[in-house]
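Subject: Interface between my chains keeps coming out wrong

I've been trying for a while to get a sensible model of this assembly. When I model each chain on its own everything looks fine, but I need the whole thing in one frame so I can look at the contacts. Pasting all components below, labels as-is. Any help appreciated, I'm running out of ideas.
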Amino acid sequence: MTTTPMTPGVVPGRLTPDAYAANFRDVAPPLDEHEARVAADRCYFCHDAPCITACPTAIDIPLFIRQIATGTPDAAAMTILHANIFGGMCGRVCPTENLCEGACVRMEAEGRPVEIGALQRYATDGVVLSGVHPFRRGAPTGKRVAVVGAGPAGLSCAHRLAAKGHDVVVFDARPKPGGLNEYGIASYKAVDGFAAAEVDWLLGIGGIELRQSHRLGEQVTLDGLRAEYDAVFLGMGLAGVNALGIDAPEIDAPARRDAVDFIAELRQSDDLSTLPVGRDVVVIGGGMTAVDAAVQARLLGAQNVTIAYRRGQDRMGASVHEQDHAVTAGVRLMTNAAPVAVENGAVVLGYTADLPDGTLLNTAERISVPADMVLTAIGQRLAGVPDAVAVAGGKIAVTGPGRTSVPGVWAGGDCAAGGDDLTVTAVAQGRDAAEDIHGFLHAG
Amino acid sequence: MTSLASNFIGIRSPNPFWLASAPPTDKEYNVRRAFQAGWGGVVWKTLGLDGPPVVNVNGPRYGVIHGADRRVLGINNIELITDRPLQVNLDEIKSVKRDYPDRALVISLMVPCDEESWKSILGRIEDTGADGVELNFGCPHGMAERGMGSAVGQVPEYIEMVTRWVKQHSRMPCIVKLTPNVTDIRKPAEAARRGGADAVSLINTVNSITSVDLDLFAPEPTIDGKGTHGGYCGPAVKPIALNMVAEIARSAATRGMPISGIGGVTTWRDAAEFMALGAGNVQVCTAAMTYGFKVVQEMISGLRDYLEARDMALSDLVGRAVPNVTDWQYLNLDYMTKAVIDQDLCIHCGRCYAACEDTSHQAVAMEPGRIFRVKEEECVACNLCVDVCPVENCITMRELAPGEVDPRTGRVAGGFRDWTQHPNNPMAQAAE
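Reply #2:
Try treating it as a single job with all components included. I did that and got this:
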């Protein structure tokens, strides 16, 4: 008997090869030249444009769109990449409805923004996928900087430093560079190995050495890096995952996994039909990770997928666009439902109420949701920070452009305070820290 | 229902929308389709002398200017007059007119500047049943190099001479089509009137190069690596055409002369504007070439609705704006307005601010929260903010009430003082 979405338990191969291919194709296919011209024509070229203000990397959006409209997409790409070296990935994964597109004056005019994200992808794909790196390094300075973490923050920082003539060594715990771009984003948002291609292209500037499988505190130490390098940037993200915090007996079903691992395994898989997934999947959490895990569980053939979030829908970390995407994919959203127990074959949720003062009221009402697989996506946390570095509110404390409590050590991205756990804020922080490091090295 | 029936110099048509002499009216097939679509009349594509027909280029003959979303704003062309044998055209004209007796069918003519040529062609067209002739003194390309078209239209004496021949050798109503490629459009119109023309039509196309191919370094349309100037038409030339129509309508020497308005008529509103400035009817080409013949149906419904809403007859519209076209020196300098931004309609794009701050009078304030307000003490009422605002009616001009003081100048609104009375004018006459 063949395996289907109805097959009980956590099993691989629920779908036909064609269905896997269809489910995991590009969720937002690129604009062609005509579509890009039509979309670009809608930009009003606003004064001091609100979209620029809304972009954490402050890309000059009206300028790059005008460059597309006038038939110079490569110039548009350079406008983007000067501000944001990960413009290609950001065009794919930014929650634009909360950032540039949410601020677009066309929202106010017609409720339909200029398609800034899609246009950004259109422009940057031409340059990034050409494989030719467009930036030149400055004259060598002889200064060496260590970057911890080859994610968006670390590589953004490394690229800017390399451009200024410094030599950069990037230490990263994983086998492959890219961080969450490589391991943490739903497959259908960055198809055809785009994350890896983008990193390869970025490294084309030269002067950046990658040392994979080097984890801070294991293969390298902060003291060692400080001794050997002129400056250190910490951009190692949030390596720990939060625990569910409920009694979970040692039972076979439901199988429990961290959503980030599920997503990472899926991203690295060459053959999706080998990935096991439950028939009845419950995802605990309300952020982007929860949505990415839930949707991909559905796309792998799970019959029933439920996102259970302990607060109201308006408090969900996932954007409305992401929520809509989940619902369209057939995911059930349960809000004000907090996990209280895991039983054999089910997750028991307790209904909650958001109180006006912001606290959460746990009621005695219960609902049991059948589950043979539970994915937890209740947030990542800082892990592996050297004791010397001050931490506040669960993140590395920073002042100004990423200066930590330790002289000569900067931090940015998800591990540092002040970001929104977005790729684009990580890129901005890495870039800005690099500028500050450059000033520091110059002064020194 | 308000009638759009038109009587232009004795030529009747069910509506005032005619197709201009141009590619769309070159042959029977097109003209029949035009009449089926509802056009009130056509001016048949210009006929020339009998004999070997003219030859057109066999590469591209049109160039274009696009607006946003490739909207056609202007086309230029290097097509010549009809390249089909004279007799074929005459037979087709007769056939169409027989089947559409209620539609206007005017024949455009262009032959060399000698009396015999004109006499001969007029004899040939006599039994087609056509309603009138239009003399093509306008085409600026190709034929002008051979002493015809705009080469005639640029010399008032020739216009007068040829028009006189035509009136002498034909009883048909005669429309003289004028070229805009002159410094003063009134002179050729006066010449046409002296020659006995029943009407003028204008404008023909404007000398133009629409674009340059930056790989070939040649004007477009490019023919084997070379280009030549063509005739520009479409929405882009409408402002030029409206002014020229108005100049003829209000000039003492040409006042009252029937005018067929041509130049970028694309919608019913364009047509109404030409007519308000004195055109008895309008001729259309580029709109049909861009969208097909069906556009006339919007023109018909739009003009009818407009007239009905105001309880006006078509004849009430013609020339109604002419008395309000004047010289700059007679504009009231004590009439004052100020821009007002409707905060409910504003989408906060800031284009008014950029335009005013960078290029005008620094009269728009940008306040926290992207609130844009007009500084009345700086606003000269130039209207640039109104023009660049992407939202209709978001920025408007408020008239200062009589007695209100303009905070910029300290002048009191509501009086009347034009340049002829202004103290700064050394030639001023006493106002009071």
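Reply #3:
Confirming on my end. Residues 295-309 of chain B form the longest helix (15 residues).
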